[in-house]
Amino acid sequence: MSELAEPTPLAELTTLGIGGAPERMLVAEDTDELVAQLTDLWQSDEPWMVLGGGSNTVATDDEIAGAVVLIRTQGIERIATDEGVVLRVQAGETWDDLVAYAVENRLAGIEALSGIPGSVGAAPIQNIGAYGQELSSVLLGVELLDVETGERSHVPASALGLGYRTSVLKRHGGADAERDAVVLSVDLLLTEAPDGMGRPVAYTQLASALEVELGDRVELTRVRDAVLRLRRSKGMVLDPSDRDTYSAGSFFTNPIVTEQASRVLPADAPRWPQGNIDETVTVIPLDGSSDVVAPPPIQATLQREVKLSAAWLIEHASIPRGFHLPGSRAAISSKHTLALTNQGNARADDIAALARFVQARVQSEFGITLQPEPVLIDIEL
Ligand SMILES: Cc1cc2nc3c(=O)[nH]c(=O)nc-3n(C[C@H](O)[C@H](O)[C@H](O)COP(=O)(O)OP(=O)(O)OC[C@H]3O[C@@H](n4cnc5c(N)ncnc54)[C@H](O)[C@@H]3O)c2cc1C
After folding, report:
1. Which residues are catalytic?
2. Atom of ligand 1 nearest to the CA of 165
3. What percent of the chain has pLDDT over 90?
4. Domain 76-233 carries which CATH code?
5. CA proximity to 235, closest of 341, 329, 317, 131
6. Which of 42, 210, 251, 271 is most buried, taking the most CB atoms under 10 A from its CB?
7. 58: CA distance to ligand 1 center in Å?
8. Could you tell me the distance, in angstroms and rounded to a whole number, from the CA of residue 127 to the centre of ligand 1?
9. Which residues line ligand 1 (CB under 6 A)?
10. Mean pLDDT of the chain
């Protein structure tokens, strides 16, 4: 790892193109050295953070206290197992290069995750997902370096609390992560596909783009091409000539609320049932039980949860695509309601003001507080 003489501003290292320079900037190109240097860093009180591709980070324009460590470690190792092929990938590899590698090598399982920017090491942090696939369905585990113990260990995916855009490793908003650790490498279990076919298509929009039925299997290359085409039409593939792609992807997560809470929304508001909970359960009340006669069981209704569409809520709170506050260079993408974009020379305050405006409009219209998806560095919403 080397320390840069002149720390690079995060505006040059994040996809939003916003953010000040840290006091110190270190670059790690080799895993053992990354471990040694992080360990050194943790023995002092110096604030620190790691950065991969900067595509899920929104940072203050001010100087960032302490050290930023850029993870640039490389390497893809292929391990044949009885269950399939395991790819052990170093954290600094580029996610989409890995997808291209898998597709070229006829390995199925991540083809629908084509075009997501960023690094492999950050992929488990929020359990990336798109077009019917999620990292959690192929993630075997990760190698972590834990801040508290300073130890390296292989941790199974089941211990990472992977959920919808979350894990125990994620710093939600700017808060501390449940498990403070750095991902050194990621193990993915992919399916060998000698016929070159991908996993069953699991997303309606992708199925119609491919002109197949949900559940059909399609060539990996065709799935990748179709996903990239769909993503481009929404400004969700990085393109230096398209200001709508200067974003952190979706700025808000789709809210998950109880089915009861969702009833206040109009019938045409999209909602997707979550989990697979029984509607009613039998409960034996403890109050009044005696050794002699068991009390009669009662039926209780469990609350189902539903996921709502943040994009629908924003649009129906009268915030159209392309919207910006007067004089601001931060705008809702003209192609995708969920992306807050830097249309050129926007400042962190512009993005934060737009985000707060969207939250306030949706809150007053529907009583729901949208939560930010990216990690915020010294920014309050
Ligand atoms: C145009 C666009 C489209 C997007 N589309 C999607 C999408 O479809 N689905 C989706 O899920 N996401 C999407 N995203 C969000 C983003 O690409 C992903 O979250 C990605 O995994 C972030 O990777 P990164 O390396 O850029 O993360 P960074 O922004 O560099 O880091 C994000 C967070 O992870 C931490 N981190 C990074 N690397 C490590 C590591 N090795 N160990 C521990 N912590 C680490 C950082 O400290 C930070 O807190 C999109 C973003 C953009 C800009």
Report:
1. 165, 250, 373
2. 11
3. 85
4. 3.30.465.10
5. 341
6. 251
7. 11
8. 9
9. 15, 49-57, 71, 91, 116-119, 121-123, 125-126, 128-130, 169, 171, 182-183, 236, 238, 245, 247-249, 375
10. 93
